[in-house]
Design a protein that fits this description.
Blueprint (H helix, E strand, L loop, with lengths): L6 H25 L9 H4 L5 H13 L6 H12 L4 H10 L3 E4 L2 E4 H14 L1
Antiparallel strand pairs: 1-2
Helix pairs in contact: 3-6, 4-6
């Protein structure tokens, strides 16, 4: 009986596994949705679903008369400087810093980030 586990078969199999893994990992970057560049891309990269955030951000913007995107971006950057988005929103909730948007009560940092996503989309 022929030996199946030859060096050649093992190398071919390992190469095939590496090619599939590379295609799966690389495919996420090739096929992901692209957005027009904005001054807030460093912040918007923290969002899992930028389109959904932009929809919610429209509600935040509708309730704001004088939304200064640059000042808000600077504020959000300062809040996220040494924290993840989850940590920053937990601090907001703990300190009672919340906003209402579209019937949702959101931590202020998340609401402002959603508003920036809406600004970037327009």
């Amino acid at each position: 009986m022929k030996d199946v586990f030859t060096r050649r078969n093992i190398l071919i199999g390992a190469g095939g596994v590496a090619a599939v893994a590379g295609a799966v990992v690389g495919g996420r970057y090739v096929f992901r949705k692209r957005y027009a560049p904005s001054p807030y891309d460093d912040l918007l990269a923290k969002l899992n679903d930028r389109d959904a955030a932009a929809q919610l951000g429209e509600s935040v913007l509708a309730d704001s008369d004088d939304f200064d995107a640059k000042a808000v971006a600077d504020d959000v950057r300062a809040r996220l400087q040494n924290k993840t988005l989850v940590q920053a929103t937990a601090v907001d909730a703990g300190e009672g810093r919340v906003m209402e948007a579209g019937g949702w009560i959101l931590p202020e940092t998340l609401a402002l980030l959603c508003a920036l996503a809406a600004k970037a989309a327009s």
